[in-house]
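RECORD TYPE: protein structure
NAME: FAD/NAD(P)-binding protein
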Amino acid sequence: MHPVTDIVIIGGGASATLLAAQLTRHGIGPRCVIIDPADSPAVGLAYATPCLEHRLNVRASNMSAFAGAPDHFLAWLRTHIDPDTSPDAFVPRALYGVYLRGLLDTTRVRAIRDVAIDCQRRADGLLHITLATGRTLSARQVVLAFGHFDPAPVPGVESLAQRQGGYCPTAWTTAAYAPLHAGDEVILIGTGLTAVDAVLRLRAVGFPGRITAVSRH
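PREDICTED:
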């Protein structure tokens, strides 16, 4: 019989990291596990961006990981990045990713690089989690912190674009930006915040061509 874990967090992004930090503050961290396939968990999709033009949409003074320490993130910025950081600054999301990685490093939560493929409550009342590698864990509680999934296929567009090449189903891969040339044109399907992020990154990597955004609605 393998040991029972108090809390298993499935997913290793920002929400998982913030939860791990809170659990550690309450002395529960050593009895918790994060399951995530990433080489370096902690940041999730939004804060893993390498583009410094991608900014937080909340002021630095309101981005602390701890409600009881509202200046925690601002103090971190002033210690590690710039001592003159304004509390009203909208800093790059990548910096918040560095902050989150540091938080996870200070927790006592163990991270397992794997994928959870099944979770069932058994007769003993425990939740039994099966991992892709065949390993199993038993837990008293499970937190689902999946984050964002890739967007759903666009009917009538995806199959045609895949056959012709040049189609990227998500804006969050390096492949979406690497092969572009000055004479190319980019069409973005969607006009929300992700489209804004895509435009900012396209310009940041030096793409000078035409960008057209088409609403899905």
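COMMENT: The CA atoms of residues 124 and 143 lie 19 Å apart.
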